[in-house]
Amino acid sequence: MAFPTETVYGLGADAFNPAAVARVFEVKARPSFDPLIVHVAGADEVVRVARGKGTAGVDPRVAPLAERFWPGPLTLVLPRQPAVPDLVTAGLDTVGVRVPGHPAARALIRAAGTPVAAPSANPFGYVSPTQADHVLAQLGEKIDLVLDGGPCPVGLESTILSLAADPPLILRPGAVTREQLEAALGTPLEVAGPTERPRAPGQLPRHYATRTPLHILDGPAGPAPADVGRVGLLAIIGSPRASGYAAVEILAPDGELASAAANLFAALRRLDAAGLDLVLAEPCPEDGIGRAIMDRLRRCASPR
Ligand code: TXA
Ligand code: MG
């Protein structure tokens, strides 16, 4: 079933049931080399799917990170327990795990009594769903149930931090920022670049993509270009110079980048449904959550 998290809607299956997990891959048309994130109800449940380097417990860095960022939009990649099915981890010796911030997600995991493996509830490669109707529109026929928890407050997928890498590596930027993680761990962190042979398919150059071509502007938008047909504009705060667009989405009328993140995917879906030939997107400053917003925009803009 699909369920809300604070980041995006997930399509969940019992992480220990390979047949259920296989249906998730089938419904999403997701390649089996792409591992799923396992969702648990609390940090004490991480040991059900992950283990430490030695025999006892999990990595000692998990506790301080869990203290600061869980429940919340941070996924940790850790050595896996052998009991986790290969389909969940795509045969890797690591597993991605997080404690979601949305109370409905944690209630669901508790009620299920099992860790829940869940990718975003969208067809592979498309924009992630941030509302229940996004899930219904694309996967409605194929899934058993959607739990409607309203719009997702964060709106971008979780930050993924690999503690299996040495030094630790941010595989996907998100609402938990590099600066926050560096402060919590007391070490500088690298951010993985896009790669064709991904550690996380969220790293694929083209992902989170609309069908309509999208181009990122160098600065605030001016008038719509002539002779490219119907042009849409994805703006951050809006500009009086922007005129002549067939559709306009303003992501952060309040000027807050967190609002831009929360509105991004729903706005991309509306623009993608507006019969446009091109979408122009304004850039935002690349610090804090702005880095994650620009990461998703660049993947959407990447040539097909
Ligand atoms: O916010 C989120 O993380 C949402 C919600 C539903 O929790 N989930 C999500 O899942 O974005 P998905 O499958 O769309 O993206 C998960 C990413 C994939 O790119 C996957 O490759 C990566 O996490 N991942 C999972 N396990 C991994 C592992 N063991 N090593 C490296 N990357 C991993
Ligand atoms: Mg996804």
Overview of the structural elements:
The protein is an alpha/beta fold. It has 2 domains: 2-191, DHBP synthase; 214-300, 3-Layer(aba) Sandwich (Rossmann fold), CATH 3.40.50.11030. The protein contains 8 helices and 14 strands. Strands 3-7-4-6-5-8-9-10 form an 8-stranded mixed β-sheet. It has a 4-stranded parallel β-sheet with strand order 11-14-12-13. It has a two-stranded antiparallel sheet with strand order 1-2. A hairpin with a 6-residue loop joins strand 8 (159-162) and strand 9. Helix 7 packs parallel to helix 8 (289-301). The structure holds threonylcarbamoyladenylate (TXA) and magnesium ion. Residues 119-120, 128 line the site of magnesium ion. Threonylcarbamoyladenylate binds at residues 5, 7-8, 10, 34-37, 73, 75, 77, 89, 92, 94-96, 100, 118-120, 157-158, 160, 171, 199-202.
